[in-house]
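Example record

One chain of 125 residues, shown exactly as stored in the release files.
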Amino acid sequence: MNNLNNNRLNILDLSDEILCLIIEKLNMVDVFYSLVNVNQRFNRLVFDSLYIHDLNMRTIMTINSSYDQTSLIGPKVLSRICKKIIRGIHSHVHKLTVEEYSMKQILLASNYPPLYSLSLINFQA
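Predicted structure tokens for this chain:
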């Protein structure tokens, strides 16, 4: 049984390169909520300019119709991200992608001095 436990890989055992590949595939809202402040290494990787430069704040949504859309991010999570994370990275965001339901809170969270591109996703016509 000890051999089985010794053969298990912990996420902390992965190289930075592998962790970066994993982060690239994840939704940034989930990354911010789940990985920020876990440890210094995760903070360094998550806040790498590669991810912050082109900040995609889209979430996965369940869309039943154009009038019945459900976001998987709750208002408390969005508030935490805006207050504790956006305010710390705003000066590094050059491109920003937001959805209709979160646009106001994300844009009002801070100024974005280097911002040159704003993409609006999932907006009603």
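Notes: The CA atoms of residues 61 and 71 lie 5 Å apart.
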